[in-house]
Write a structure and sequence with these properties.
It contains 4 helices and 37 strands. The longest helix is centred in the N-terminal third of the chain and has 8 residues. Pfam families: EGF_2. Keywords: Disulfide bond, EGF-like domain, Glycoprotein, Repeat, Signal.
């Protein structure tokens, strides 16, 4: 049995019975500034932290602030050197400091030219293992010299906006290497002699593998039906359809058809034809069209301002006109107003006098509604010319379109 105040050879600490610190003084010594006692990973014993030692996750340090996993990056990569109390110590055996970085990820030895032994051959600066060459030099280690004058190099790489390679590329001996190059080796979305063309400006949401330039999403069955004979539409199994309304030319959308003033906008996203009914009336003459949407006058509502807000019909009488054969009001997919069903605008594929038509409830082939070769009209596929079948899956012609 140990006597009070004697030294404990096992823990290296004095017994708590001989501690002369008050509780507040003891906790003050164990507390990380702005943090918990012993970092929440140990117990405070007379101003000294006794850290957790159980696996997994050993903690150590004066305040249990060190963890053997702290040096792991968010990407799951481990410190390339030696992890000590949450910091990477890089293995620079000769003390030259060539290996550095928060995770020792930079190895400037990659910049040393084997023939000359110089960093970037003496014609550039090394940053995290990559050479950035002086004007007139290029190559992985700045070992190649350009055969044209520096002023001519700058002139050739200057874009119309006065920036070198439009700030989207690197100038190498008078030629711009754009930052966005397709993995296959073809041009990516950034191209041009001075990288001045950026096709990303033609997309609402950038996706390098998508060809939906200058396009708008249509979400109305009426648009599907109007576009039935147009080859500018692509149908798929999703609830919406992408309609190409222009083409991208050096990062700018040219809307088509040419001369059609009703299609406009940065991405040709405004199509005022959507404000017209089948007879060509704009917003039922009860509103104005703004970027393909009707702004109705007071007293009118609906996508095409086709519904008057006033109704001289009693509620019971109104509902009687909205009941379908099975007695359900608007088939349970809309609301009744003045004896007429107004189908849910969120479910654009629902239509019909009693909202009984589901333009997604058509036969499919290869997972596509109407095989993508027609439109779904009230549960039945209406095929494009040359196609037939319940799902428009049969081609009647001799050659595919």
């Amino acid at each position: 049995m140990r006597r009070p105040g004697c030294f404990d050879k096992l823990s290296g600490l004095k017994s708590t019975s001989s501690c002369r610190l008050s509780q507040s003084e003891s906790e003050q010594r164990c507390q990380i500034p702005g943090g918990k006692l012993c970092n929440g990973k140990g117990q405070c014993n007379c101003g000294v932290c006794i850290c957790q030692v159980t696996e997994p996750g050993k903690y150590y340090g004066p305040l249990c602030e060190c963890h053997e996993w702290v040096c792991e990056t968010y990407g799951g990569e481990i410190c390339a050197g030696t992890c000590h109390c949450g910091r990477c110590k890089c293995d620079n055996l000769k003390g030259n400091g060539l290996i550095h970085g928060k995770y020792c990820e930079c190895d400037d030895r990659e910049c040393i030219d084997e023939e000359t032994g110089l960093m970037c051959t003496g014609h550039g600066m090394c940053y995290c293992g990559n050479c950035y060459c002086e004007a007139g030099w290029h190559g992985d280690k700045c070992e190649l010299q350009c055969d044209i004058a520096p002023w001519e190099i700058k002139k050739k790489c200057t874009s119309p906006n006065g920036k070198i390679c439009s700030n989207r590329g690197t100038c190498v001996c008078g030629e711009c290497i754009c930052h966005d190059v397709d993995p296959t080796g073809d041009w990516g979305d950034i191209h041009g002699d001075t990288c001045e063309c950026d096709e990303r400006n033609c997309k609402a949401a950038y996706d390098r593998y998508s060809d939906d330039f200058c396009s708008a999403l249509r979400a109305a069955a009426a648009q599907l039906k109007r576009a039935r004979n147009s080859n500018s539409c692509r149908l798929n199994s999703s609830r919406k359809m992408t309609v190409l309304t222009g083409k991208c030319e050096c990062g700018r959308c040219t809307c088509f058809p040419p001369g059609e003033s009703k299609i406009y906008g940065k991405l040709c996203e405004c199509d005022d034809r959507q404000c017209e009914d089948n007879d060509g009336n704009v917003c039922n003459d009860q509103g104005t069209c703004s970027c393909g949407r009707c702004i109705c006058k007071d007293g009118w509502f609906g996508k095409l301002c086709q519904h008057p807000r006033k109704c001289n019909m009693a509620e019971d009488e109104s509902k009687s006109y909205c009941e379908s054969a099975d007695g359900v009001l608007c088939s349970g997919k809309g609301s009744c107003h003045c004896g007429k069903c107004i189908c849910s605008p969120q479910e654009w594929y629902i239509s019909g006098e009693f909202c009984e038509c589901d333009d997604q409830d058509c036969d499919k082939y290869d997972g596509l509604i109407c095989t993508g070769n027609g439109i779904c009209n009230c549960g039945n596929c209406e095929c494009w010319e040359g196609w037939t079948g319940h799902a428009c899956e049969i081609w009647l012609g001799t050659e595919y379109p």
